[in-house]
Amino acid sequence: MTTDEPSRGAARAGVREVARLAGVSSQTVSRVINDHPNIRPETRSRVLEAMAALDYRVNNAARALGTRTTRTLGIIASDATLYGPSAGIGALEAAAREVGRWVATAYADAADAGSVEGAARHLLGQGVDGIIVVAPHARTLPTLAELTPGVPLATLHGGLGAERQADAAALAVEHLVALGHRRIARLAGPEDWLEALARDAGASRALADRGLAASAGWVGDWSARAGAAIAAAVAVAVRTVDGPTAVAVANDQMALGLIAGLRATDVAVPGDVSVTGFDDNPDAAFYSPPLTTVRLDLAGEARRCVAEVLGHPASALPAPPELVVRESTAAPP
Amino acid sequence: MTTDEPSRGAARAGVREVARLAGVSSQTVSRVINDHPNIRPETRSRVLEAMAALDYRVNNAARALGTRTTRTLGIIASDATLYGPSAGIGALEAAAREVGRWVATAYADAADAGSVEGAARHLLGQGVDGIIVVAPHARTLPTLAELTPGVPLATLHGGLGAERQADAAALAVEHLVALGHRRIARLAGPEDWLEALARDAGASRALADRGLAASAGWVGDWSARAGAAIAAAVAVAVRTVDGPTAVAVANDQMALGLIAGLRATDVAVPGDVSVTGFDDNPDAAFYSPPLTTVRLDLAGEARRCVAEVLGHPASALPAPPELVVRESTAAPP
DNA sequence: AAAACGAGTGTTACCGGTAACATTGTTCGC
DNA sequence: GCGAACAATGTTACCGGTAACACTCGTTTT
Questions:
Q1: What whole-number distance in Å separates Cα of residue A218 and Cα of residue A241?
Q2: Which keywords does this chain's UniProt record carry (chains A, B) (predicted)?
Q3: Three-state secondary structure call for residue A104
Q4: pTM for the whole thing?
């Protein structure tokens, strides 16, 4: 394990070294690095050459110290075992990198205000320029805002993205209605998650738009386990006269659990009841039966979200959500 | 959105302010912050009070600039849609935070050397003190080592953790053997992933230990889709005389896809063939049938990994892997 | 009792960029 | 043809910690 460091002795070059080699001042080097206007093209290229020759790399700590901005975005994420948030984080990282920002991620139990607060403190300590909350809890958002004065806050799948969440949920319901379903139940996410609210609101709206009653729904914590736990109750409802003939579930994982639970009680999907998911988890095509679900333009949502915390003008809107029809939905029995 | 910043005007306090309020030098404040010995308890508490009173927070950029260390670990992650890596990242973040480090994550397509290199450069630019590669590609590891002289490198689920990966895979095979299976096939991960190698090696070893032939296996890219794609071939093999009666799959998601594909070709699991997974994905209990799989002590592995890059003495070893028996395995037909 | 030591603290300079301001030509309007 | 505006570059100081070293006392050591 001999750390034979090639740079030993020859400390990494800084702006001053580059400046000397290029025959300019260090400030000019800085200008080139930061793409300032008013640099003679020839000077610029001389500097660039020098940077390449010395394998120059900016020192972010120094830059951050001088500018009081770290070019880093903090992400507060919930449970890494849920598909939605995980995929969201990946998309955010890509979007941040696209605009030259770094990300620092802190995981927290979204349902526990203390944990979220700890994550926020952790990120603030890091000096992030903004914080993005993935799948935020309704209650924690105000707390966060209070905790982080001066640091812009945005939410993926919450704030501005909420309409599209609702639209996507509506898409699922419309699909069920088109198949002939008239009594459509909902299995929503935890009531106090903005994301859950948006999805459920979208489903309700679609029902109302079609003149259908929004029957009472169930609530789960996004996990497959929760879906399974609710299955017995769903089975009872389905077997009831005038019971639902379809369930719009707020994410794919709960749908998976629900279907598993229904199978255990001999309720056939989609024979006895149709089920839709939400997310288009890559696994959903291989559930049994393959799950009909809706998909958001995650990359687009992430870009919008990054632009928002950065205070950039809204770029192109994310693509509209898509319905992915598979085999968990059919005409009502 | 009136950003009524309470700290406007009253710029955030630094060590010097704290020092003045506590009646000591800034260096003493620094010593308190860093838990240096040789501080009179009374002095320490005076400083701590002053820090609290001023709501002092260290400026990491300044610290990094002075010490040439950022207390940040870089994580190079592959696909956010796979359960294993996602969960691994979450565990690493927690482990890093436990020892007062930050993490910076960069996602890369592990199969694309260029992409991994880009991620590494990104992290190096950030000035990370070490890099942890989640689920590394065998070939990219040397490249990375070359690219990052002086920056310690470790792998989650690769290097030192490999034995436990192998042990876990062996556990699955042993379970199948105990059920009476003698012809056990394998569906491995991509050949050049260290993790895939370790798991497959463990399975092979277990077979050899039992005096069983390691029949040829299949390979997939960890995704459910890959499992489904291979299903037809597996079905043919299973129906062959002397064909396998069980398949040990290298992760749960591929197992899911495989089972879905087998169902399509009327091969029953576990009736005609038993299937085991790897990871204990929280969804696996709700697959159809619920998946028998093995689980690693992810938090422990992450801690070990963080200690390794940090050059800390190895702490407690991760707990041994566990077998989780569910319904995808049964005695051979 | 002088010398050596260690605990506890202060001084100074430095890390590597960049903001702010100063300084040169150049070009342009009238 | 002269001052104004501007383009291109240099100077200087500063961001906020900490390393390195210096210094002052009590305690030991010999």
A1: 18
A2: DNA-binding, Transcription, Transcription regulation
A3: strand
A4: 0.91
* Residues B236-284: tens digit of each pLDDT: 999 999 999 999 999 999 999 999 999 999 999 999 999 999 999 999 9
- From B114, B140, B156, the end of a domain falls on B156
Cβ A24 to strand D below 7 Å = yes
Is residue A176 domain-shared with residue A251, that is, in the same domain? yes
Is the Cβ pair B80, A90 closer than 8 Å?
yes
Are A218 and A257 members of one domain?
yes
**CB of B121 within 7 Å of some strand D atom:** no
> Is B191 found in the same domain as B270?
yes
Kindly report the backbone phi and psi dihedral angles of residue A139, in degrees, each rounded to the nearest multiple of 5, phi listed first: -75, -30
Residues A62, B58: C-beta atoms closer than 8 Å: no
CA B63 to C1' D14, in angstroms, rounded, equals 16
Q: Is residue B1 part of a domain?
A: no
Distance from CA of B212 to the nearest CA of A (A): 32
Whether B69 contacts B39, CB under 8 Å: no
- Under an 8 A CB cutoff, do B260 and A290 touch? yes
**Does some domain include residue A310?**
no
Residue B140 lies in a domain: yes
Judge if B171 and B288 occupy the same domain: yes
Q: Which domain holds residue A63?
A: 15-67
**Strand C at less than 7 A from CB of B27:** yes
Task: Please give, rounded to a whole number of angstroms, the shortest distance from the CA of B103 to a CA of chain A.
Answer: 6
Question: Per residue in A111-154, pLDDT tens?
Answer: 788 888 888 888 888 889 999 999 778 788 888 888 877 889 99
Say yes or no: B170 and B280 in one domain.
yes
Pick from A123, A72, A77: which is nearest to B102 by CA? A123
The Å distance, CA of B199 to C1' of C8, is 56
Residue B160, pLDDT above cutoff 80: no
User: What is the pLDDT, as a whole number, of residue B1?
Assistant: 33
Measured to protein CB atoms, the chain D nucleotides within 7 Å are 7-12, 14-20
Q: Is residue B308 part of a domain?
A: no
Protein B67 CA to nucleic acid D28 C1', in Å?
A: 35
Query: Domain check: are A185 and A233 in the same one?
Result: yes
Residue B221 sits in a domain of what CATH number?
3.40.50.2300
Decide if B284 contacts B291 (C-beta within 8 A).
yes
Backbone φ, ψ for residue A193 (5° rounding): -95, 130
Query: In angstroms, what separates the C-alpha of B210 from chain A's closest C-alpha?
Result: 34
Show residues of chain A in contact with B224, CB under 8 Å: 282-283, 285-286
Following DSSP, what letter does each residue of B130-196 receive, concatenated? EEEEES-BTTHHHHHHHHSTTS-EEEETSTTTHHHHHHHHHHHHHHHHHTT---EEEEE--TTBHHH
Q: Which chain A positions have a beta carbon within 8 Å of B150's beta carbon?
A: 3, 5, 7
Last residue within a domain, chosen from B123, B156, B189: B156
Q: What is the count of structural domains for chain B?
A: 3
State whether B282 and B176 are in the same domain. Answer: yes
- CA B18/CA B47 separation, integer angstroms: 7
Q: What are phi and psi of B143, to 5 degrees?
A: -55, -45
Q: Do A169 and A141 share a structural domain?
A: no
